[in-house]
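[Q] Does anyone have a clean structure-token version of this?
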Amino acid sequence: MARVPYVGTGQPEATDDLAELFREIADLRGSVHHLHRALANQPSALRAFMGMSRYIRNDCTLSPKLRELAVLATAYALDVEYEKVHHRPAARRAGVSERQIAAFPNWEESDAFEPAERAVLRYADQVARTRDADDATFRELRAHLSTADVINLALTVGWYHLCAAILGPLRIEPET
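[A] Here you go.
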């Protein structure tokens, strides 16, 4: 059970501004999730959170497929069920195959991934496990991504570490 309440639009703490923010989130994400409702206990924080979320998920140049592979690698390495539940469907929409999704958490043993995908997965996994990437992994990554996309990947992986640090301690559950 979550350690903070999930705010809804019909509750006393829900202002017109919060209702508008929930409409924006629903338009962007399809619905307002538990994570958003928990963060709505501090609406200005939720608005700031959504700004970065919008950049990572909608505006950065990293391909959606590579982004979702990085998110899944991070979610599995950090064992964040909420992110696994939300990002398996997102990965499918981004072009990640069922075979690739089924390879998690043991993606390294699978031949389902192209070299650029492996470089992204290795980077995300290493960062999740060690908060660093070794030189060989970074060279491999640089062979496949532009400098701008390396930055976008670093931001994406870091963003989902932040999400994990919110979801876990607040015990935010996936929607049922």
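[Q] Thanks! Anything notable?
[A] Residues 64-170 form a domain with the AhpD-like fold (CATH 1.20.1290.10).
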